[in-house]
Amino acid sequence: MEILYFVALNVLGHVAFVGARMTTSLFALRLGAGPGTVGMVMALFAALPMLLSVTAGRLIDHAGPRRPLMAALIGLALGSALPFLVPRLETLFVSSTILGVSFMFVHIGMNTVIGAHGSVQDRPMNFAWLALAFSISGSLGPLIAGFAIEGLGHAAALLLLAVFPAIAAVMLGLRKRPLPRPERHPAAGGRLLDLFQVAGLRHAFLVSGVLATGWDLYAFLMPLYGAQIGLAPASIGLVMATFAVATFVVRLAMRVLIRRVQQWVIILASMAVAGASYALFPLASSAGPLVALSFLLGLGLGCAQPVIMSLLYETAPPGRQSEAVGVRTTLINASQTFIPLGSGALASAVGMGPVFGVLAAALLCGAWYVRKRGPGKAL
C-alpha cells in the first residue's frame, strides 16, 4: 500500500504540471503570442531546472526528500494559480518558471523515494509503478485542462489544476513516518565529472536524454500543431491524453518485458518506434490520425523510462543517486530550454514539418547508436 501512496503523490503533482504546461501554451496563443514567444514561455519550464537540478539532487541526498517535496508541491499550486490572479502574458513567464523549478524537485525527490523503497530486486518494478503514475497523470492532465479551458476559460483552468498539488501537500503533511531515502555514503559530495567517468552511467545519460527530448517536445509541439490545423482545445487534450494512455498500456506489460526482453532491445525498439512516429506526424491533418500516431508514439517512449531509471539508480555511485538523477534532469532541461526556442523559430519560418523531421532523425540516430553497441553494451 505504501508504494500506492507514493504513486498518488506523484500523480497529483504531475497532473498539475502537464495540465499547466498545455494550458500555458494555449493561453499564450490566446493572449496574442506567436510560435516564437510561445517557445520562449515553454523554455522557461526548463531554464532554471537546467541550472539547478544537480544542486537539487545533492540537497535531497544530504537533507532527505521530505522538505524539498513539500516545498515543491506548494510551489506547483502557487505557480498554477498565479495566471488566474494576474491573467497577462507576462505572468506566464513567471508562472512557467515557478512550475518548472517546483516539478524539478518533485521529479528528483520521487525518484529518490522510489529507488530507496524496498529491496534491490524490487527496484525495476518500483520504477515501473512510478512510470505508471506518470502515465496516469499524463493522461488526466491534458484531459482536465482541455475540458476546463472550454468550460471555464484558460485562467480558471489553471486555478483548477492548482488544487491537485495542494491535496498532495496535505497528504504529505499528514504522514508521520519519514520517507525512504538512500543511506548516506562517503562518496556523496564528490566531483560532478566523476559521474561521467562511470561508463554505464554516461551511456544512460546519453540515451535517456534523447528519449526524454522526444517525450517532452511532444508537450510543446502538439498544442501548436493542433492549433495550426484548427483543432479545438478539448480535441488537443484528447490527442495528448491518448499518448499518455499508450504509455500506461505498455507499462502494464513491463513486468513481462523486463523478465523476457533484454534491456538494450527495449531501448532500441523505443527509439525506433518513436522516430518513425514523429516522421509521420506532418502527414496527419485531423484528430483521428493524430490520435493513432500519438498512441504509437506513447507505446514507443513509454516502455523505456522504467528501464532507464532503474539502470541509472543502479550504476550511480553509492550516496549519489539523487545527484545522478539531477544530472539527467539537467541534460533533459537543457534540451527543453533550447530546443523549444529553436523549434519555435523554425516553425515560424518554415512550418511544423521540418521540426518533426529533425526530432525523428535524432531518435532514429539514437536507435542506430544503441544497435551499434549491441547486447550488454547499450548502457
CATH topology: Growth Hormone, Chain: A
- The arrangement of helices and strands along the chain is HHHHHHHHHHHHHHH
> How big a fraction of the residues is strand?
under 5%
Total beta strand runs: 0
- The coarse silhouette is globular
Radius of gyration: 19 Å
Residue-averaged pLDDT: 82
Q: Can you count the helices?
A: 15
- Give the helix proportion (percent range): over 70%
Q: Measure the end-to-end span.
A: 32 Å
Structural class: mainly alpha
Number of domains: 1
Question: What low-confidence regions span 5 or more consecutive residues with pLDDT below 50?
Answer: none
Could you give me the name of the CATH homologous superfamily?
MFS general substrate transporter like domains
Observed structural traits:
379 residues, mainly alpha, Growth Hormone, Chain: A, 15 helices, globular
Concise overview:
This protein has 15 helices and no strands. The protein is mainly α.
How would you sum up this structure, described in words?
- The protein has 379 residues and is mainly α.
- It has a single domain, classed as Up-down Bundle (Growth Hormone, Chain: A), CATH 1.20.1250.
- Helix 5 packs across helix 13.
- The mean pLDDT is 82.
Task: Describe how the helices and strands are arranged.
Blueprint: H1 2-30, H2 35-63, H3 66-85, H4 89-116, H5 123-152, H6 154-174, H7 193-196, H8 199-228, H9 233-252, H10 254-260, H11 263-280, H12 287-302, H13 305-315, H14 321-350, H15 353-373
